[in-house]
Amino acid sequence: MISEQFDAVVIGAGSAGYAAARGLAGGGARVAVLEDGREVGGLCILRGCMPTKALLHAAELRQAIRQAEDWGITTGEVKTDLAELYAKKDTLIAEFAGYRRQQLARGKFTFIRQSGHFTDAHTLALGDGRQLSAKHFVIATGSVIAPPTVPGLAEAGFLTSDDALTLRQLPKSLIVLGGGAVAVEFAQFFQRLGTQVTLIQRGPHLLRDMDEDAARELEKALRREGMTIYTGTRIVRTEAIATGKRLCFEHANVNVTVEAEEIFYGLGRTPNTANLGLAAAGVATDGNRIITDRQQRTSAPHIFAAGDCCGPHEIVHIAIQQAELLARNILHPDRVEEMDYRLLTTVVFSDPAVAQTGLTEREARARGIDPLVATHPFNDHGKSMILGAQEGFVKLLADRRTGELLGGICAGPQGGELIHEITVALSRRMTAAELAAVPHYHPTLAEIWTYPAEELADAVTAAK
Predict the structure, then answer these.
(1) CATH code of the domain covering residue 294
(2) Domain co-membership, 131 together with 170
(3) What SS3 state is found at 41?
(4) pLDDT tens digits for 314-329?
(5) 198 and 79, same structural domain?
(6) Which of 186, 237, 310, 363 has minimal Cβ neighbours within 10 Å of its Cβ?
(7) Same domain for 363 and 252?
(8) pLDDT digits over 12-47, tens only?
(9) Is 340 within the bounds of a domain?
């Protein structure tokens, strides 16, 4: 049996794994990267961020063309060639994935296309019979679609987000299960391309991790586009029928039945850790999720983890931050760093987009903070009115005593872009008055932030 020794072995070659390997190798460590996926690139490139946003862009283009009549522009019937749409998406993803493959092949580390599992705390057994030993290990194996827990769904059959990326034709009708980012984004994609969508959410509103007022704005927009939405439900059973699928659930104390050609399961993902032999390495888990501290260290002090396999936020830029931080901690154990989620930013790429940074109003109050809050609607803002925004608003939170900004949320056009202005303001610990004093060009979407900032600045001044 061949055994190889490294300073560090990284398991997984997605965004987090590559970032960790690059950081470690750049610091002089002898590194091996292990990847057993059929494709190389990670969830974000292959089946997550990039392909889904490509599809959403196509749906936005179609919607914009359909709405052109508001400006006297007549286009006739808007048709979609699904094969061409998906081919364009595939071309883009092939380019992104190809670049990642080059980075991995040319990196200052050993890239190994094999599966592996721990046999003890310092040894990995590979699928080809080799063994790898290392002083440190980094687990960055990402996540997989969670198995369905809905009664009867496995037997009836369903689509996942992976399936939705390879469709040959769109279903005429679709039941979407879930109210998070994946469910909402795909629901709107299908609706805009002509599928009649019914969305079923267990909680009281969509996007449970965001403030309810922002989620309600999105719900209004989706309903205006023709989508049927049920919130506050309890699913009873699912079954296959001759024409497709049937879902029975309780809503407002009433039994409801809906039927559709297909069901989309958008109720989340689970860490991809089942086959790693974590117990043999002494790595503690909570279910499938690896438990880490703020240094990204697991219960085995020499083993670290980053990304979806450990959380707590399944966001690519967070995964990369975690990976880069743990690489520095491995290289420089005398000056360890800890993750700081104060600037956590989240974006849902719906239309209107919903984005938040820092504290939400609900989170602030849960922490015992009574923030100053100010909002301004997009339908009372010049540039967004020109763009046809009918729903949405921006909201800022500030400390009552100092005026320091605590968080912001944007439910409206280009929200994923606009939110970064507030992330920058939070990073510099700016006050509402300081943000209000920053010149903003007119007319732009970005100047909408100045209105709640001025309101908060006035409120702080008045309280002094």
Answers:
(1) 3.50.50.60
(2) no
(3) coil
(4) 999 999 999 999 999 9
(5) no
(6) 237
(7) no
(8) 999 999 999 999 999 999 999 999 987 888 888 888
(9) no
271-282 residue pLDDT tens? 999 999 999 999
* DSSP labels, 200-250: E-SSSSSSTTS-HHHHHHHHHHHHHTT-EEE-SEEEEEEEEETTEEEEEEE
CATH number at residue 430: 3.30.390.30
Give the neighbor-by-neighbor strand order of the sheet with 228-230.
Answer: 228-230, 196-200, 173-177, 262-265
Q: Which two tokens stand for residue 9?
A: 């072995």
Residue 325 and residue 403 in one domain: no
Q: Rounded distance, CA 425 to CA 432, Å?
A: 9
Q: Give the domain range for residue 260.
A: 153-267
Measured distance CA(74)–CA(59) in Å, rounded: 19
Using the predicted structure, report yes or no on whether residue 417 has a pLDDT greater than 90: yes
Note whether 306 and 243 are same-domain residues. no
Residue 439 maps to a domain: yes
Rounded-to-integer distance, Cα 254 and Cα 257, Å = 10
Q: Give the global pTM.
A: 0.94
Domains held by the chain: number: 3
Q: Annotated catalytic residue: which of 251, 317, 332, 442?
A: 442
At residue 2, the pLDDT reads 58
Axis-axis angle for helices 15-26, 316-331 (nearest 10): 30
Give yes or no: 442 in active site: yes
The CA distance from 271 to 275, in Å, is 11
- The single-letter code of the amino acid at 171 is P
